[in-house]
Design goal:
A 4-stranded antiparallel sheet has the order 2-1-4-3. It has 2 helices and 4 strands, in the order ββββαα. With 70 residues, it is α+β, with helices and mostly antiparallel strands. A hairpin with a 6-residue loop joins strand 3 and strand 4 (32-37).
């Protein structure tokens, strides 16, 4: 399956595999976006998650449980 996510309004849509790489108008806001293969889309989401997690740990290296006084 292909995943279509609009960068403008955030609309998500699942499409058939033959839509991968196609630039399609968003059904909600009509702006064109590209449909991606599911694995590519999920890989990008996971990369962003771990990057945010790493930056958060860099800002607050002490676990919350260790900060608790009781």
């Amino acid at each position: 399956m292909a995943i279509y996510r609009c960068n403008s309004c955030g609309h998500l849509l699942e499409l058939p595999n033959d839509s991968v790489g196609a630039s399609l108008p968003c059904p909600r806001c009509a702006r064109p976006n590209t449909a991606y293969d599911t694995t590519v889309f999920v890989r990008k989401v996971v990369e962003k998650y771990f990057a945010l997690r790493q930056s958060r740990r860099a800002r607050n290296p002490t676990p919350v449980a260790a900060q608790c006084p009781w």
